Amino acid sequence: MVTVDSRPIGVFDSGLGGLTVVRQLLRRLPCEDIVYFGDTGRVPYGTRSREVIDKYARQDCRFLRSEGVKLIIAACGTVSSAAPHVLEEQPLPAFGVVGPAAAAAVRQTKNGRIGVIGTPATIHSGAFCRHISQLNPAVQVFAKACPLFVPLVENGWIGREDEVTRLTALRYLEPLREQGVDTLILGCTHFPLLADVIADIMGEGVILVDSGREAADACVERLAADDAFAPPAGGSSGERCSPCGRGGKYRFYVSDQPEGFSRMAGMFLGQAIDGDLRTVDVETMTVTAGQ
Predict the structure, then answer these.
(1) Is the peptide bond before 44 cis (omega within 30 degrees of 0)?
(2) Is the whole model's pTM more than 0.85, yes or no?
């Protein structure tokens, strides 16, 4: 007998970038409830020490568990790469964006030369290099930290017409282009919003791997393996959710400035926020009224 699991999927990030994962989940799993936590009061994670990243990741996971989630996605590339042990110690399925994106890049490269861009903490951790090497030791990996990409995205400077963004991207990406990579992992969930700019610089022959999209695919695979899909809206138990009509409910939490989050979230989600938005102090687990 097929079972169902109506508990929500939990997603967290240091800020807004994880909403690109939620965007992909909405497309693939429209019947699933989703709880999103953006740690906007402590962003960015990418420049923090390992100890601080560990602490924040544990608090984020603890909060999502308190919301009764069935699975946790660390949509933060920094946590995924610098603190995978925190995800492994959770008492429920929890994974990040590194493994799925690395696997996709190895599948897609033709010349065995893969580029990776991410926050300083993500790149310095070497996580993508280790994952790729385990999958195919013959592949060469060229990594580049892009610390200015996150603030550019969170300030809305994402278009081809933004000269500062284009020049910054050119400075970061030119060494990878010179190395002849044919596949580039966008190792931070903010970076897909810069995909047009990045694609222009890297050229048509380079495949961009969206770590958020790959994480959403991994979520679908895990729910299928665990037989843990939510029932479809208005449907009977035992039916797998299908994109026939959105039935899921969404709760959004931030740790600071909910007004700013609401204004920018539509850019990441591709639509206006449809669901509750509340503020939470993850140290005390105190939630304040929605906006």
Answers:
(1) yes
(2) yes
The amino acid present at 45, given as its one-letter code, is Y
Strand partners, 13: 38
CB 116 within 8 A of CB 184: yes
Q: Which residues are catalytic?
A: 76, 188
Q: What is the DSSP string of 194-243?
A: GHHHHHHHH-TTPEEEEHHHHHHHHHHHHHHHHT-PPPPTT--TTPPP-T
Encode pLDDT of 67-118 as tens digits.
999 999 999 989 999 999 999 999 999 999 999 999 999 999 999 999 999 9
Rg of the chain over Cα atoms, rounded to whole angstroms, equals 18
> Which of 229, 253, 213 minimizes the C-alpha distance to 97?
213
HSE-CB for 189 with a 13 A CA cutoff = 38
Pairing type for strands 286-288 and 276-281 reads antiparallel
